[in-house]
Design goal:
This protein has 4 helices and no strands. It is mainly alpha-helical. It has a domain of 119 residues. It is rod-shaped. The N and C termini lie far apart (163 Å). 10% of the residues are buried.
């Protein structure tokens, strides 16, 4: 009786493993992974059918010892653990893949933003360089205008100095008031 219970539990493990394997196959992206998942599921179905046939038809005729049922049990348990492990790893890898995809999209947006900012800065730089050139030209014109004004003022002063009658010592005493 105990051997039949072990085989029934083994069948439950295999059924659970088949369903987990089906979920796992749907998460696969690459065809090679799907093919490997389908092969694993086919092997589990074959084991399930073999266990069922042994339980129904061959238990009394083929194996009457406890060791055969233990072997079936641990085989099913092993398959269930491997499938569960694979499933959890695939789920984690899928989640990490999605996180990386989101991060990649964020980086792409930031790159585009930085690129447009760089373009705007280059446009502003070109405008500022143009304004700087204009200001430099205006400064040159103003400086040359100021220099020409200064020269004109200097020449006007010199002309004014030259036009004034030169004072001699005789003229300077005549202009002084007489002493009493």
């Amino acid at each position: 009786m105990f051997t039949r219970i072990l085989i029934l539990v083994s069948l439950v493990f295999l059924i659970y493993s088949i369903f987990v394997c089906r979920k796992m196959i749907t998460t696969f992206i690459r065809p090679v992974q799907r093919k490997a998942g389908n092969i694993m599921m086919a092997l589990m179905i074959i084991l399930f059918l073999g266990y069922t046939l042994f339980l129904i038809f061959g238990y009394d005729l083929l194996y009457k010892n406890f060791m055969a049922s233990l072997l079936f049990f641990f085989t099913a348990f092993f398959v269930m653990l491997v499938i569960q492990l694979n499933h959890s790893l695939i789920i984690r890898l899928t989640m990490k893949s999605l996180e990386l995809k989101e991060f990649s999209e964020k980086l792409l947006k930031e790159t585009k933003s930085l690129s447009s900012s760089k373009q705007r800065l280059e446009n502003i730089k070109a405008i500022l360089e143009q304004k700087n050139t204009e200001m430099h030209e205006s400064l040159k014109k103003w400086s040359s205008w100021r220099i020409s004004i200064m020269k004109k003022l200097e020449s006007a002063r010199q002309e004014q100095v030259q036009e004034q009658p030169q004072q001699t010592p005789e003229n300077s005493e005549e202009n002084k008031p007489a002493k009493v």
